[in-house]
Amino acid sequence: MNLPNRITLARIFMIPVMMMFLLVDFDFYPSPIQFGDYSLPYNQLIAVIIFIVAASTDGIDGYIARKHNLVTNLGKLLDPLADKLLITAVLVSLVEMGSVPSWMAVVIISREFAVTGLRQVALLDGSVVAASSWGKVKTVTQIIAISLLLLNNFPFAFISIPMDVIFIWLATIVTLYSGIDYFVKNKHLLRQN
């Protein structure tokens, strides 16, 4: 249990705490942050801070593991699992809150499961499906979209630009495209099995 794996486990343990702040209705919350028409409940602010910290640990644990030669099989299993759990949990929470259409969450989550399945097929074949540049763009757009949604479109709400809506659409399109890209580039794995 090295440092990168501990960071990854910490990311996993942050998920239920984040969901608690998003979904549990506590009576003792102070009144929301208000600026004119803009409003942000404190529980959402805490949840978005947890989400951003958790999402940022993904790059940190990978960097430490590669730099200090601490890459382990446990880390290879936990890191992508932690990413998928984080995104899935927050998307399900946002659907419950009415902030994301359920079909978008289904498209994004389905892509994650499909690519994970493709990676498993590749492992059985003795090969590895490397992360693509589209996969990295997908991750960034998802994190930006989720952060904007959790912040109720701050700061763009003040200038009436629905960046949260724009980015969740962009994240859905890029997620779908990156999933198709993985399957097209690795179709040989499906023909062999």
Describe the model.
The protein has helices spanning 3-23, 42-67, 73-96, 102-124, 133-150, 163-185, 187-192; strands spanning 33-35, 38-40. The chain is mainly alpha-helical. Strands 1-2 form a two-stranded antiparallel sheet. Helix 1 packs antiparallel against helix 2, helix 1 runs parallel beside helix 3 and helix 2 packs antiparallel against helix 3.
SSE order and pairing:
Layout: H1 3-23, E1 33-35, E2 38-40, H2 42-67, H3 73-96, H4 102-124, H5 133-150, H6 163-185, H7 187-192
Helix pairs in contact: 1-2, 1-3, 2-3, 2-5, 3-4, 3-5, 4-6, 5-6
- Give the overall shape, derived from the CA principal axes: globular
Radius of gyration: 18 Å
- Beta-strand portion reads under 5%
Order of helices and strands: HEEHHHHHH
Are there runs of 5+ residues with pLDDT below 50, and where? Answer: none
Q: Helices and strands: which structural class?
A: mainly alpha
Question: What separation lies between the terminal Cα atoms?
Answer: 35 Å
Largest sheet: 2 strands, antiparallel
Q: Give the strand order of the largest sheet, numbering strands 1, 2, ... along the chain.
A: 1-2
Say how many strands there are. Answer: 2
Query: DSSP helix count?
Result: 7
In round numbers, the mean pLDDT is 90
| Portion in helices | over 70%
